[in-house]
Amino acid sequence: MKTRLWLWVPLALFAFFAGLAGYMLTQPKDQFVESTMIGEPLPDFALDPAFGGLPGAAKADFAGGRPRLLNIWASWCLPCIAEAPQLEALKAQGVEIIGIAIRDRPEDVARFLARYGNPYTRIGSDRISEVQLAIGSSGVPETFVIDGEGVIRYQHIGDIRADDVAVLLAELEKAK
Amino acid sequence: MIRSVLALLLTLLALPGAVPALGQDTMPPAPYAYTQLEDPALEAEASALMHTLRCLKCQSQSIADSDAPMAGDMRHQVRSRILAGESPDQIRAWLVARYGDYVSYEPTVSATTWPLFAIPLLVILIGAGVLLRRLGRRRGETGAEAGE
């Protein structure tokens, strides 16, 4: 009898793996690739202004003691429209947001800001995703908390939803 | 009535095609995204490396195989860094420092991935052990039968 039970083990294992595979097929794919640069200083960069209205962005702009947000976005990115009101809310709380526009044109940046609001103090133009790759960002939009010493402290992947605002404010507070 | 339903259906069908430009940039590719290095030896080095790096946007492709703008920008990084004298290992390490093992499209043995390599070996060994024991037992049985 004991040996009989043993015979069922391979079938049970097979059923387990088949079930697991079937279950995983129904789960949404996790497409987020997290940056492994958290805790590391920002790499050296100096980007030209993304359009005529604001200065460009450089590593030096993150010095001076207070934490800031670094927002990776683009005028061609749809979720960036969705997060615009949340960036405005963060700006209203006194947060300084420095933008980096990925693969973007000045006229498109200007049009986007005129339409959806401008929460930025500076926007650098990253035409070939150079700075994006250097900080370990894998898409738009992404938002990084940078402390007063220019060290990356937190990464938010995807658009900022209403309930992410409090999380980001808390992370900014922690980075002080 | 039928006509308006048809018109509605047609507009619905046309909808996905109506927003082609959004969600994708219109910028020209980075200089070295689609342009090979002039030195064939350096290009071969760059190409070999590009086949072992994962596209971050289209995760089932290497950056050598992907047409995503970001993969183009990564190829530009690889080629321009090779041209500047960096070794493929240095460039790979630079990317792994930013994205972790994930960016490696070539499986490497590390603290988290070693079971992937160890388990199949273990299973084969167990299988071989079971098989040998069974065959040995059967031979013993037939031997005993023959002796009877």
From TrEMBL, chain A:
- Report the InterPro entries cross-referenced here: Periplasmic_diS_OxRdtase_DsbE, Redoxin, Thioredoxin-like_sf, Thioredoxin_domain, Thioredoxin_ResA/DsbE_sf
For this UniProt entry, the molecular function terms from Gene Ontology, in alphabetical order, are: disulfide oxidoreductase activity
Q: Which Pfam families match?
A: Redoxin
**GO BP annotations listed:** cytochrome complex assembly
Could you state one GO cellular component term attached to this entry? outer membrane-bounded periplasmic space
Where in the cell is the protein located?
Cell envelope
All copies of domain Thioredoxin, residue ranges: 36-174
Give the keywords, sorted.
Cytochrome c-type biogenesis, Disulfide bond, Redox-active center
Write out the similarity annotation.
Answer: Belongs to the thioredoxin family. DsbE subfamily.
**Which PANTHER family does this one have?**
THIOL:DISULFIDE INTERCHANGE PROTEIN DSBE (PTHR42852)
Q: What is this protein called?
A: Cytochrome c biogenesis protein
Organism for this UniProt entry: Erythrobacter dokdonensis DSW-74
- What is this organism's lineage? Bacteria, Pseudomonadati, Pseudomonadota, Alphaproteobacteria, Sphingomonadales
TrEMBL record, chain B:
Query: What are the record's GO terms for cellular component?
Result: plasma membrane
Q: Write down a Pfam family by its short name.
A: CcmH
N-terminal signal peptide: 1-23
Q: Which domain of life is it from?
A: Bacteria
A molecular function annotated in GO for this UniProt entry is: metal ion binding
Kinase listed as a keyword: no
- Where are the membrane-spanning stretches? 114-132
The record, for InterPro entries, names: C-type_cytochrome_biogenesis (IPR051263), CcmH/CycL/Ccl2/NrfF_N (IPR005616), CcmH/CycL/NrfF/Ccl2_sf (IPR038297)
Q: Give the GO terms filed under biological process for this record.
A: cytochrome complex assembly
Key word Metal-binding present: yes
Which UniProt keywords are listed?
Cytochrome c-type biogenesis, Heme, Iron, Membrane, Metal-binding, Signal, Transmembrane, Transmembrane helix
All residue ranges annotated as the CcmH/CycL/Ccl2/NrfF N-terminal domain in the record: 33-143
Spell out the Gene3D superfamilies in the cross-references: Cytochrome C biogenesis protein (1.10.8.640)
PANTHER family, per this entry?
Answer: CYTOCHROME C-TYPE BIOGENESIS PROTEIN CCMH
Family label = Belongs to the CcmH/CycL/Ccl2/NrfF family.
Q: What does this protein do?
A: Possible subunit of a heme lyase.
Q: What is this protein called?
A: Cytochrome c-type biogenesis protein
Species of origin reads Erythrobacter dokdonensis DSW-74
